[in-house]
Amino acid sequence: MKTIDPSAPILVTGGTGFIAGWIIRYLIEDGRRVHATVRDPNRREKVAHLEALADKGPGTLKLFRADLLDADAFDDPMQGCELVLHTASPFTLGPFKDVEAELIRPALEGTRNVLEAANRTASVRRVVLTSSVAAVYGDAADLREVPAGVFTEDHWNLTSSERHQPYSFSKTLAEKEAWSIQSQQDLWDLVTVNPSMVLGPSLTSASASGSIGVMKQLGDGTARLGVPDIRFGVVDVREVARAHLRAGFTPAAEGRHILSAAEMSLLEIAAVLRRRFGDAYPFPRRVSPKFVVWLLAPALGLTRAFVARNVGHPVRFDHTRSVEALGIAYRPVEESIVELFQQMIDDGLV
């Protein structure tokens, strides 16, 4: 059980990320001293929104250059920090030219480099890792092996690999590595946040959130003829950001925490958008038959193994621990969906 000094600086890795932006905003609004790592502090289009947050205060922000694959990059920004929020990790669903270079090395070695820096930094007392429900399960079909019919923090992804669901594989490897490193020392403890698909507004139009790609296909006509019957968990980015802070500042917090407000299908998300935006955009109205999706999988950027194990399969998550241990109150998912799509309209993405 670790208590964090509120006056000490807090390190947020991956500061330009979708989730990290909201974490930094809340920390600055709370008057905290924030150290944030970014790839290039001089890229104004990437960091201007963070500097604007700092200008409003009352907290402060200091940006540091860091690359996930640089083993020494995190020592300087971590100095004096008691809490490290490690959000930096590649988030892309493909296609990939080199899975090892694009996903696995940055996720695994990046986590290792941050945590080994924590081992070298005497001030660090707690690390909060942004993991994912992708480290809990690999495919919706895995639910058939779960007696209670719902995924919990006790479950681990056992079915992903470099060839099948490589993003999920990278998140699983990274979280397991984090727990392994933590178990070998007693200077700092580890808490993980495992969100499902993150929706809601971004603090910058430069965000590369993977959820934006999904929403864009629903609104730009790509999916007008139908969508696969795929279900997944969804959660608002603001709840995810708050969960990181609660995980960091709640002394009794420990272990893993699934963050998921509800399970929805692509067609249900499209229905929410149609109720709000009408027929201004060609939102899909029907589900494509599974055999059609299977036949067209390569052209759709999917593998047939993915289609077989995810299309038409239910998925359920138990978020009880996030509510009871972290005090998370989930907003209606419709709000998150509409706000994200409206921002995409405002930013000219659809």
Outline the structure in words.
By secondary structure, the protein is of the alpha/beta class. It has a single domain (about 10-345), classed as Rossmann fold. It has twelve helices and ten strands. It has helices spanning about 20-30, 45-55, 75-80, 100-120, 165-185, 210-220, 235-250, 265-275, 290-300, 305-310, 320-325, 335-345, and strands at about 10-15, 35-40, 60-65, 85, 125-130, 190-195, 195-200, 230-235, 255-260, 260-265. The strands form two sheets. Strands 3-2-1-4-5-6-9 form a seven-stranded parallel beta sheet, sandwiched between helices. The chain has a three-stranded mixed beta sheet with strand order 7-8-10. Strand 2, helix 2 (about 45-55) and strand 3 (about 60-65) form a beta-alpha-beta unit. The N and C termini lie far apart (about 45 Å). The model has no long low-confidence stretch (mean pLDDT about 95).
